[in-house]
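Attaching the record inline, Q. Sequence:
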Amino acid sequence: MFKLQQFAIEQNKCAMKVCTDALIFGAMAPIQSGDSVLDIGAGTGILSLMAKQQGAAQVTAIELNRDAASQAQDNVSKSSWAKDIEVICCDICNYKTDEFFDVVIANPPFFEDHLKNPCEQRNTARHTDTLSYHALMTSADRLLNVAGTIYLLLPLHAKEKILESAAQLSLHLVKQIDYITMEGGKAKLAAFEFSRDCEHEFLHESITIYRGHQQYTQQSSAVLKHYLLRFAKD
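Structure, as predicted:
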């Protein structure tokens, strides 16, 4: 179990466990109070729960894997926000609803054309075989409010492909936050925000997570202070 200040995450049924990158991503999500949020590839449900803590009014969590969806539902049910988060086990490409969302978030599969892991469930979570970047962007665009935001965590080497898909959908990159794991290192991941607003000024920032082994920088500490137990006030 991974315990946070306001909720806990069981993750034994999920291929991909809670990691610092995902926590940073969730904590920095562009969510305003009252927003409706769609979490694509919800996994343990951690991003959905973080979205609720940030003030989202309603969250819909879509997860393809049955075991992961079941665990996400359990985690949501044990939280304070069980009535405001709906977990649905389905393929996002086939998901239909009359609703449109203010924010679509996703921490999608990272790897294309890499060697596979013997664990098929882990393959699904880590590779893009079941959800290509273009399919992800198309689904997010289909379900996005006119003034909505798509927020993705991706490896930097995928930027060109995701920008190609965004251009086809008339979506514009409005913000990029590079993730530098250790001081002095180079970013390999980034959070990308897309909007239909072509007049929005593009912002390019970075966050350095650690200054040493298990030592958060002042920057990442400020981002995670309302989530991790180590920052909880007595």
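Residues 111-128 have pLDDT under 50 and may be disordered. The chain has one domain: 2-231.

More tomorrow.
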